[in-house]
Structures are given as structure tokens and as C-alpha cells.
Design brief:
single chain; mainly alpha; Fumarase C, Chain B, domain 1; Fumarase C, Chain A, domain 2; 2 domains; 3-stranded antiparallel β-sheet; two-stranded parallel ribbon; elongated
């Protein structure tokens, strides 16, 4: 189990991603603890002056003009949590919940939230013991904060919600009683600080970044294998050609595919063929993959910025001032996930076209649908239909959520980000594209196995062919292909495909 220290040092998504998979110890450094304590003292001093502070001694949203009596401040926060716990749908997975909790602790550690050290320590203790709030996935529009889902997190902290511990769903109060933990009694501002923030949107975005990261490299490998199996030209990927286009990711993609095809006997076997040009799905791989990689990097930059930001309201400053803003608004995350959705969707779209390239047969050397006995056998006809279905689904899912908005809170919250949906549908696209790439790899590898057995693949792609041979992915007859596809999906997800390539080649 690793350790993650919450400090004033910036963190990248890669620093956080490990807790998506498993429990890691998290702790505050001394400076963060002092920042939390100091912001609480400033808030308490302000309350003694009877200053009007939104959400602390006023109502919320459209009710912000209602002044709350001092004896009701704690009840105000409790009512806020209870009334806002309106989430629906299946619970977010454990990894995302861990990240939500960590991001909440990180924003408090900046010293602008005014929560008590007791509240921060309880949330930290829950995280370190993998006591994970049950948070429904639906109910947030991405402003003002991920209110509904975060209210469910807050419910568990006060002993009124449910948690999962070692896979069991149970009332948080029962878990606390068993472990000798006292639920928090919320005081001024703590309820609003718990639910104000972009932590849910950002946590889902981190998972999307993490899960899509290796797909861009995998797509280069899949494309190279299709180029080889489809008897296409290697020289169209010559880096000297692609230096003319001033896109570094296009160039790196061209490098990858050109190098992956190095010393391929299959490529050399048709070097003097009469074909002048290959279709766009082959010839323009560097252009399409390169553009998608650039968008991915843009999304990463935006998510990394949000990871290290304060997303709370109102905000407490060391000079004693308390100011309001809209840092809980997740428009940046929403747009980042829309960008990523488009980038990943296009990777899948061009992969589907490369699979389709094989379906009509190639140069009288590869029969229709890559079947050894077309007619008697259907080959990969329906494997392609599955990719077509997934690619088409992605076209709808990649419609940007950030351009949508809906007025809430009686018009006070009249422009919202829709970031949670933007991130969730991005995960759907990622899953679809992983499946599309798996089918492309299966088809291209089997074409090599069925029709090019007299020649060797490139040394780098031979690593994939050997892996597929070991995993029983290569076959010369019709079989229930869904089982094979699932194996290849798993090999992509656990990065076995890339690990085998990296034995002989470093991808750019």
C-alpha cells in the first residue's frame, strides 16, 4: 500500500490514479493541518461580529436573503445535507469515491473552507479505512457544486447515510459504532463546504483520463497491425513526410507506426504491387490519431488544474475577508470531458473503418470477411457489425454536454455545466472504443495467421502475434468470437498489449 501526502505541492492525475484501483494511505502534512485550523479560526471570528456570510448564517440559493439565527446555524447545515441528498441511480464505483474523498480533503487543505480539523480528520480516517460513502451517480448538474452526490457523502459522515466496507453496504452509524468512531456534528459552514465543489465531476474525469491514456498508444499498435495484415504501404508513415505538418502528435504517431512495421516480411512481400494509394483510414492514421492525442493532452491539462484548485464557496482569506465566487462551477471539467469524448470517439471511428477495409477482401489475397471458406463461413462479418454499432453509439454520446444548461434553484443557478454527465458518457465512449480496438486487433492478427503465414510479422508486431497465440485468439474457423473479443479487451485494459510491444520498441 502506497502513501499519498496532502500538501501544497501540485499533484497530477497520475499521482491520484492509483487509488482508483486500491486503498492507499493518505495523510496531511503539517502545513495543511495548520491551514485548515487557521481558516476555521478566521470563520469563527467573523461569526462573532455578526457578519452576514452566505450559506453560513443565511439560507441557500434563492433563499440567500433569509437571515438565520445564531442558535440555528448547526441545524441549518444539517438540514442542508438532508434536503440535498436526492441522488439516484447505481452507486459510483469504489475507486471514484476514494478520489472524491481525496479531492475534498485536498481543497480543504488549501485553507479557504473554514471546516473544523475534526471534520477533516474523520473524512481522512474513513478514506484510510476504506469506509466509502455510497454515492448515487445521478443528480448533479455540475453547479453549484456536485450538490446531490456530495450530500450523500456528507450523510455518511454524520451517521445518516450508507457506506461500503470490504464490499458490504451498511449504515455508516453501525460501522462507526463498531469501530468506536463518533459521527461529526456539523457546525457553521461545514455542510455547505461538504457539498460545494467539483469533486465528483473531477473524480470521474480522472478515471476517464486514466482509462483512455493507453488507448491512444494501443490504437497505433492496432493500426500498424492492420497496415501489415491489409497489405498496405509502410512508406506513407515515413517521419520525413510528416515533419511537413507541424503537429508533434501526428509526427509521433507516424514514428510509431513506421517503426512498428520495421523489417516486416509481410510488408516487403508486396513492395512492388500496383496499388497506388491506401484508403484514408490507413493513410490518414497519423493525422487522426495525432489530432486526438492533442485533444487528450488538452483535457489532461484542464483536469490537472482542477485537481489543484479550490472549489468551495464562500471563500475564507488569511486577512479575515470572506468572499463569494463560483469556484464550484465545473464548466472546465465539462468541456475537458467533451474534448476527450470527441478525441476517443474518433480513434474508434477510424478503427471501425480499418476493420471495414478487410470485409470486402483485399487484392484477391484476402477473401471477403477474412473467411477461409466464404459462404460456408461468415468470418468476421458480425464482428465488424458490432464495431459499427459501437462507433455509431459513440457518435451520439460524443455530442457535447457542456453546450447544454438548465436553470435550477428558482433561477439563481441559471447556467450549469453538466460536467458529471459529460464525464460519465466519456467513460461509456472509452469502453466502446476499447472494444472496437480489441476487434481490430483480433481481425488483423487473424488475417496474418490465416493468409500471411509464409511471411513473418515485424519483430515488434511478432510480440503481439505470440501473445495472441498463447491466449488462443488465433483461429482458422468460425467460433463464438465474443469470447475472444473479451480476452483481447482484457489484454488492452491490463496493458499486456503495450507491455509486449515495449519489449522491443519504445512508443512515442
Amino acid at each position: 500500500m502506497g502513501t499519498l501526502v496532502i500538501s501544497d505541492k501540485s499533484k497530477l492525475w497520475e499521482d491520484i490514479a492509483p487509488i482508483l484501483k486500491s486503498l492507499h494511505e493518505v495523510k496531511f502534512d503539517s502545513k495543511s493541518l495548520k491551514s485548515i485550523e487557521n481558516s476555521r479560526k478566521i470563520l469563527e471570528s467573523a461569526l462573532k461580529t455578526n457578519s452576514v456570510i452566505y450559506g453560513v448564517n443565511t439560507g441557500f440559493g434563492k433563499l440567500n436573503n433569509v437571515k438565520i439565527k445564531s442558535q440555528d446555524l448547526a441545524k441549518l447545515q444539517l438540514n442542508l445535507i438532508r434536503s440535498h441528498a436526492c441522488g439516484l441511480g447505481k452507486p459510483l464505483d469504489d475507486g471514484i469515491v476514494r478520489v472524491i474523498m481525496l479531492l475534498k480533503l485536498m481543497t480543504w487543505s488549501k485553507g479557504h473552507s473554514g471546516v473544523s480539523i475534526e471534520l477533516a480528520n474523520l473524512l481522512l480516517e474513513m478514506l484510510n479505512n476504506d469506509i466509502l460513502p455510497v454515492i448515487p451517480e445521478k443528480g448533479s448538474v455540475g453547479a453549484s457544486g456536485d450538490l446531490a452526490p456530495l450530500a450523500h457523502l456528507a450523510l455518511s459522515i454524520i451517521g445518516e447515510g450508507k457506506v461500503t466496507i470490504r464490499g458490504e453496504k451498511i449504515d455508516s452509524k453501525k460501522v462507526f459504532n463498531k469501530l468506536g468512531i463518533d459521527p461529526v456534528k456539523l457546525s457553521a459552514k461545514e455542510g455547505i463546504s461538504l457539498i460545494n465543489g467539483t469533486q465528483v465531476s473531477t473524480a470521474i474525469a480522472i478515471k476517464a483520463i486514466h482509462e483512455s491514456n493507453n488507448l491512444f498508444y494501443t490504437s497505433d499498435v492496432a493500426a500498424a497491425l492492420s497496415v501489415e495484415a491489409g497489405l498496405c504501404a509502410r512508406d506513407i508513415f515515413d517521419p520525413e513526410v510528416h515533419k511537413l505538418k507541424k503537429n508533434k502528435n501526428q509526427l509521433s504517431t507516424a514514428h510509431n507506426i513506421y517503426n512498428l512495421l520495421e523489417n516486416s516480411e509481410i510488408v516487403m512481400s508486396h513492395i512492388n504491387c500496383n496499388k497506388v494509394q491506401d484508403p484514408y483510414s490507413i493513410r490518414c492514421v497519423p493525422h487522426v490519431h495525432g489530432a486526438s492525442k492533442t485533444l487528450f493532452q488538452s483535457a489532461v491539462e484542464i483536469v490537472n488544474e482542477e485537481i489543484n484548485s479550490v472549489s468551495d464557496n464562500p471563500l475564507i482569506f488569511n486577512n479575515g475577508e470572506i468572499k463569494n465566487s463560483g469556484h464550484f462551477h465545473a464548466e472546465n471539467i465539462s468541456q475537458a470531458m467533451d474534448i476527450l469524448s470527441i478525441a476517443v470517439s474518433e480513434i474508434g471511428a477510424i478503427s471501425e473503418k480499418r476493420i471495414n477495409y478487410f470485409m470486402n477482401g483485399v487484392e484477391n489475397k484476402i477473401p471477403q470477411f477474412c473467411a477461409l471458406n466464404p459462404g460456408l463461413e461468415s468470418g468476421f462479418m458480425l464482428a465488424h457489425v458490432t464495431t459499427a454499432a459501437l462507433a455509431s453509439e459513440n457518435k451520439t454520446l460524443s455530442h457535447p454536454a457542456s453546450v447544454d444548461s438548465i436553470s435550477t434553484s428558482a433561477g439563481m443557478e441559471d447556467f450549469v455545466s453538466m460536467a458529471p454527465w459529460s464525464a460519465k458518457k466519456c467513460l461509456k465512449i472509452i469502453n466502446n472504443v476499447r472494444s472496437i480496438l480489441a476487434i481490430e486487433l483480433m481481425v488483423a492478427a487473424n488475417v496474418n495467421f490465416r493468409f500471411h503465414s509464409n511471411y513473418n510479422s515485424s519483430p515488434h508486431l511478432s510480440n503481439i502475434m505470440k501473445l495472441f497465440q498463447e491466449q488462443d485468439i488465433l483461429t482458422k474457423k468460425d467460433v463464438p468470437f465474443h469470447e475472444i473479443i473479451e480476452v483481447v479487451i482484457s489484454l488492452i485494459k491490463n496493458e499486456k498489449i503495450l507491455q509486449n510491444i515495449k519489449k522491443t520498441l519504445k512508443l512515442k
